[in-house]
Hints:
- Helix 1 (4-27) packs antiparallel against helix 3, helix 1 runs parallel beside helix 4 and helix 3 runs antiparallel to helix 4.
- Strands 3-4-6-5 form a four-stranded antiparallel beta sheet, covered by helices on one side.
- 29% of the residues are buried.
- The chain is an alpha+beta fold.
- The chain starts with a helix and ends with a helix.
- The chain has helices at residues 4-27, 77-86, 109-146, 152-185; strands at 43-46, 49-52, 57-63, 66-71, 94-96, 99-103.
- The radius of gyration is 21 Å and the shape is elongated.
- The mean pLDDT is 88.
- The chain is 57% helix and 16% strand.
- The protein folds into two domains: 4-26 and 108-185, Ribosome-recycling factor (Topoisomerase I, Chain A, domain 4, Orthogonal Bundle), CATH 1.10.132.20; 33-103, Gyrase A, domain 2, CATH 3.30.1360.
- The protein has four helices and six strands; from the N terminus they run H-E-E-E-E-H-E-E-H-H.
Amino acid sequence: MQSFSELSKELHDKMNAAVEHTKKEFAGLRAGRASAQLLDSVVVEAYGNSVSINQLGNINIPEPRTLSVQVWDKGLVKSVEKAIRDAGLGLNPVADGQTVRVPVPQLNEERRKEMAKISVKYAEEGRISIRNIRRHGMDVLKKMEKDKIISEDETARHEKDIQKLTDEYIVKIDTALSQKEKDIMQV
């Protein structure tokens, strides 16, 4: 059985990973010009599995407002095109041979608000991950108390520590969200 300090480090590492994942999701939301990270969250149904788009082809930026995906397997071009269209990014890809061209529309006010909503969704997913990690930590504490490894008082103190850690990481996500919304809404 692990000690509380080991559990605390594990929770810290997992929460940090959740924040980093959320920031990576934010990086995929463009504020101005085309970015290859815009397609990072796109998952394609291929070979009977869900596969990240960057495992099926090269993503390039031939022009500031255009992305292109050079699909390696010609049979997957339609699947890649459909996955980009269905990803909720407001993009309308066009297949051209083995290349899928993705014109990136200029951000108008409506599109900026839509992007801001998507960033809020990513932030909420990050908060949920952090709360799930907290729940795991609390479950481990309860088991440690049940197994008489720690006392009831220690459990109560450690629960407060875990809650404090959770609050810190949720603030980190909220800060990143506020920065991303500011970037998106900036004309």
